[in-house]
C-alpha cells in the first residue's frame, strides 16, 4: 500500500521516469525522492516494470502482410475505373455472325477447335502473381521491366493522379467463371477477378430503383440456400467451397463498375428453378430476355426453358417428363452455337459409369482449361474453344474412355473416369441483370408538366 | 516535432528504435502521389514490423495482428491523397492501426487472450537459447526473467484497452507523451495518468517477484 502523500505525486514519478516533466516539476520530484525512501522504492519498481515491458519479445510482421496487401491492391487495380463499354464490346458480336448458317458455324467452330488443339496451349487464365511492386520484405523489387511495377504504377496513377485507359486493358481479366475455376482459381480468389464477360445474361428490366432493389433482394434470398455462399461475405477461410455460389456485382467485388444491378450466379438446376420461379412471380417476367452470345431470346417461357436446358445438358433432371419439343431443341441449338458450343457434344449422354446424379463439375474434376472461353473482339469465331474429345459425338454411340471435354457453355464436364470423383450436379453460370429502363413516351401521351397543366386550366 | 529525450530504452531495441525522420516520409509520400508507387512499398517495409507488433500487443492475437496491420496499410493507402503534413506519417499510420486494433478488440471481447501463452513458448525458447549460449548469465536468472515477462504479458492483456494502448505505445514502441496524445487523440494529462495507473497495475502483478520480502510480509 502506498503512502497517501506518495500517491499524490506518483503520477509525476512515471512522468519523471519518462523525462516528460518540466524542469520545475523535475526539481520538485527529485527533492521528494531525496526525502522519501518509499518514493525511491516506488520509482525503482516502476522502472523495473517498465523495463520488463520494454524487453518483451517483438514479433516481426509475417511476409503474408505484404503479400496480402499486394493481392488486395491487385484486386483494386482490376476493378478500379472499369469501363462498362469495354465489356459490352465482347458480347456484341459482329452483325454478320448470327446470319451464318448453322452448318457454317459448326464448321468454323470445329476448325477452330482443331486449330486450338494443334497450337501450343496458352494460359490466358493463369493467375498472375506478384502483380505489384510492393517490395517483399527483404527483396525489394525495383526492376522497371517487371510488369507488376507497371501495373502498380498504373493503379496509383489512376487513383491518385490520372487514369490510364491502356493500363485497364492490360490488367482486366475477362475470363469466365468456369475458365477460372478450371484453371484452379479458388472461389474466394475469384473475388479478385472481374467477370463481366459471362456469355449468358438474363436481363430483367424494371422501371424504378425500388423495383430493382426489391427484385435483387428476392433473388438473393432465393439464392441464399444452404449450399450457396456469397463470395463477398462468405466464410473467408473456406477456400474449398466449389459448390453453388453467387455473388453480387458490388463495388470492389467482381464487377468493374460495381454495378448494383447485377448478380453473378453459378447455380445448380434446382437453384435455377427457384430463381426462375421468383422471376416469374414478379411482374417483370414479361419483359425479361436472355442473351446468349450474340443471340437474344425474349418471352418468359422461352427464356426459362432455355436456361433450364442449359443447366441440364443431358436432359435429365428436368421437371417435364414429356421431354423437349423440337422447337425447344432448335432454340437450344441456336443458343449453343451462339455460345460457340457443339450442340451434339453438349447433349452427349453420360457414360454408364456416370449415373445421372453423378454429373461432374468442372471445378471438381478438371484442372484443365475450360473449353469455353467467351469470344474476344479479336476472336470472332470463338476459336478459343477446345475440343479434345477423341470419341464420336454421335448421340447414341456407346461411350468410350476419353479425356475429352464437353465444351458446353457453362456446364462443362470432363469425362475422365480415372480422375472422376464423387457425383455432383452441373452448374450454370450466368449474369442476372436488372437494369432500370424508362419506358419511351408514346406520341400523343404528353406528359403533364406544370406548364401544361396551367395551359389546360387557362383554356 | 519537438521530441523529448527518452531515457530508458532496452539495448536490444536500440537499433530498431532508430526513429525514422518525418522528412523521409514526406518525400516518400510525395513520390507516391506523383505516381512512383514503389515508394509505398518502402513505407510498408519501414513500418510493418512496428505496426504489427503494436497491433499484436493491443489485440492480443497474432493472426488478428496480421489482418489489422494489413488493413491499416490499406486504409492509409486509400487516404494517402488526402494526407496532409499536419502530423507525421508515422503517428498518422499508428493512429489508424491503433484505432483498428482497439475497435477489433471491442468487438471480440469474448475471445480469450492467449498472447501470454503464445509468447511464453517463444520467450522460453529464446531465453533457453540465450542461457545455453551465454556464459555470464545464470540460467536461473534467465528463467526468472522469462517468467516475469510471461506474467507481465498476461497482465498487459488484462488491462483495460485504453490503458494497455498507452503502455504499448510508451514502453514498447517508445513514443513520447505528445505523440501518444496525438495517436490516441487524448490530452497529454490523460496519457500521463493512464500510463501511471497501468504501470501500477502491472507492478502489482509482478510485485511478488520484485519485492519478495513484501510478498512474504
Task: Write up what this structure looks like.
- The complex is a heterodimer of chains A (459) and B (217).
- Chain A is of the alpha+beta class and 459 residues long.
- Chain A folds into two domains: 4-54, no CATH class; 92-125 and 173-433, no CATH class.
- Chain A has helices at residues 4-8, 10-17, 23-35, 37-54, 64-79, 84-91, 102-118, 147-161, 165-171, 177-182, 209-223, 269-281, 300-311, 326-338, 343-346, 362-365, 450-458; strands spanning 200-203, 229-230, 245-248, 262-267, 289-292, 295-298, 405-406, 413-414, 428-433.
- In chain A, helix 3 (23-35) packs across helix 4 (37-54), helix 8 packs across helix 9 (165-171) and helix 13 (300-311) packs across helix 14.
- Chain A is elongated and about 105 Å long.
- The termini of chain A are far apart.
- Chain B has a domain at 20-111: Rna Polymerase Sigma Factor, Chain: A, CATH 1.10.1740.10.
- Chain B has helices spanning 22-33, 38-59, 62-79, 89-107, 115-133, 139-158, 161-172, 177-184, 188-210, 212-216.
- Chain B is elongated, with a radius of gyration of 19 Å.
- Chains A and B meet through helix 2, helix 4, helix 5 and helix 8 of A and helix 2, helix 3, helix 5, helix 6 and helix 7 of B.
Mean pLDDT of chain A: 60
**How would you describe the shape of chain B?**
elongated
Mean pLDDT of chain B: 77
By secondary-structure content and strand pairing, the structural class of chain A works out as alpha+beta
Envelope shape of chain A: elongated
Oligomer: heterodimer
Count of helical regions of chain A? 17
Secondary structure tally, helices of chain B: 10
Range of strand content of chain A: 5-15%
Largest sheet of chain A: 7 strands, mixed
In which order are the strands of the major sheet of chain A placed? 2-3-4-9-1-5-6
Rg over CA atoms of chain B: 19 Å
Instruction: Name the beta content range of chain B.
Output: under 5%
Give the fraction of residues assigned to helices of chain A.
25-40%
Enter the CATH topology name of the domain at 20-111 in chain B. Rna Polymerase Sigma Factor, Chain: A
Amino acid at each position: 500500500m502506498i503512502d497517501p502523500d506518495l500517491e499524490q505525486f506518483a503520477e509525476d514519478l512515471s512522468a519523471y521516469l519518462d523525462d516528460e516533466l518540466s524542469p520545475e516539476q523535475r526539481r520538485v520530484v527529485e527533492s521528494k525522492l531525496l526525502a522519501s525512501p518509499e518514493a525511491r522504492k516506488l520509482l525503482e519498481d516502476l522502472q523495473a516494470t517498465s523495463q520488463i515491458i520494454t524487453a518483451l519479445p517483438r514479433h516481426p510482421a509475417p511476409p503474408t502482410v505484404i503479400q496480402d496487401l499486394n493481392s488486395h491492391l491487385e484486386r483494386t487495380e482490376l476493378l478500379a475505373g472499369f469501363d462498362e463499354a469495354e465489356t459490352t464490346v465482347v458480347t456484341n458480336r459482329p452483325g454478320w455472325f448470327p446470319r451464318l448458317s448453322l452448318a457454317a458455324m459448326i464448321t468454323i467452330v470445329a476448325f477452330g477447335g482443331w486449330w486450338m488443339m494443334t497450337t501450343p496451349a496458352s494460359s490466358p487464365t493463369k493467375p498472375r502473381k506478384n502483380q505489384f511492386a510492393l517490395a517483399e520484405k527483404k527483396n525489394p523489387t525495383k526492376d522497371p521491366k517487371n510488369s507488376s511495377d507497371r501495373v502498380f504504377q498504373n493503379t496509383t496513377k489512376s487513383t491518385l493522379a490520372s487514369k490510364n485507359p491502356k493500363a485497364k486493358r492490360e490488367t482486366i481479366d475477362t475470363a469466365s467463371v468456369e475458365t477460372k475455376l478450371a484453371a484452379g482459381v479458388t472461389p474466394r480468389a475469384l473475388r479478385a477477378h472481374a467477370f463481366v464477360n459471362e456469355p449468358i445474361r438474363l436481363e430483367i428490366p424494371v422501371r424504378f430503383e425500388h423495383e430493382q432493389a426489391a427484385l435483387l433482394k428476392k433473388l438473393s434470398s432465393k439464392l441464399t440456400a444452404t449450399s450457396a455462399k456469397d463470395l463477398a461475405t462468405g466464410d473467408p477461410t473456406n477456400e474449398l467451397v466449389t459448390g453453388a455460389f453467387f455473388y453480387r456485382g458490388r463495388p470492389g467485388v467482381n464487377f468493374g463498375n460495381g454495378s448494383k444491378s447485377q448478380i453473378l450466379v453459378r447455380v445448380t438446376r434446382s437453384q435455377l428453378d427457384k430463381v426462375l420461379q421468383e422471376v416469374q412471380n414478379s411482374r417483370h417476367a414479361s419483359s425479361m430476355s436472355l442473351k446468349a452470345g450474340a443471340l437474344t431470346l425474349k418471352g418468359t417461357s422461352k427464356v426459362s426453358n432455355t436456361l433450364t436446358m442449359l443447366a441440364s445438358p443431358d436432359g435429365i433432371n428436368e421437371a417435364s417428363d414429356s421431354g423437349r419439343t423440337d422447337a425447344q431443341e432448335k432454340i437450344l441449338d441456336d443458343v449453343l452455337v451462339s455460345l460457340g458450343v457443339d450442340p451434339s457434344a453438349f447433349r452427349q449422354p453420360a457414360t454408364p459409369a456416370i449415373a445421372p446424379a453423378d454429373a461432374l463439375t468442372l471445378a471438381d474434376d478438371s484442372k484443365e482449361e475450360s473449353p469455353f472461353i467467351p469470344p474476344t473482339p479479336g476472336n470472332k469465331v470463338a476459336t478459343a474453344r477446345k475440343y479434345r474429345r477423341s470419341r464420336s459425338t454421335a448421340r447414341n454411340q456407346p461411350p468410350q474412355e476419353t479425356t475429352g471435354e464437353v465444351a458446353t457453355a457453362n456446364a462443362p464436364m470432363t469425362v475422365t473416369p480415372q480422375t472422376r470423383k464423387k457425383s455432383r450436379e452441373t452448374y450454370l453460370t450466368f449474369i442476372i441483370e436488372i437494369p432500370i429502363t424508362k419506358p419511351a413516351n408514346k406520341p400523343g401521351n404528353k406528359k403533364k408538366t406544370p406548364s401544361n397543366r396551367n395551359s389546360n386550366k387557362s383554356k | 516535432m519537438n521530441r523529448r529525450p527518452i531515457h530508458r530504452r532496452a539495448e536490444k531495441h536500440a537499433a530498431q528504435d532508430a526513429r525514422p525522420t518525418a522528412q523521409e516520409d514526406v518525400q516518400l509520400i510525395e513520390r507516391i502521389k506523383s505516381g512512383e508507387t514503389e515508394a509505398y512499398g518502402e513505407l510498408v517495409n519501414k513500418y510493418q514490423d512496428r505496426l504489427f507488433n503494436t497491433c499484436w500487443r493491443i489485440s492480443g492475437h497474432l493472426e488478428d495482428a496480421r489482418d489489422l496491420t494489413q488493413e491499416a496499410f490499406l486504409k492509409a493507402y486509400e487516404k494517402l491523397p488526402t494526407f496532409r503534413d499536419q502530423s507525421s506519417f508515422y503517428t498518422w499510420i499508428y493512429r489508424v492501426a491503433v484505432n483498428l486494433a482497439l475497435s477489433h478488440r471491442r468487438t471480440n471481447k469474448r475471445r480469450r487472450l492467449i498472447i501470454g501463452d503464445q509468447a511464453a513458448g517463444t520467450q522460453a525458447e529464446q531465453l533457453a537459447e540465450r542461457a545455453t549460449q551465454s556464459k555470464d548469465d545464470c540460467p536461473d536468472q534467465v528463467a526468472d526473467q522469462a517468467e516475469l515477462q510471461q506474467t507481465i504479458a498476461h497482465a498487459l492483456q488484462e488491462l483495460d484497452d485504453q490503458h494497455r494502448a498507452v503502455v504499448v505505445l510508451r514502453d514498447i514502441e517508445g513514443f513520447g507523451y505528445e505523440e501518444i496524445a496525438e495517436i490516441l487523440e487524448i490530452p497529454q494529462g490523460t496519457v500521463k495518468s493512464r500510463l501511471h495507473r497501468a504501470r501500477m497495475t502491472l507492478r502489482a502483478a509482478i510485485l511478488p517477484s520484485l519485492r519478495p520480502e513484501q510478498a512474504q510480509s
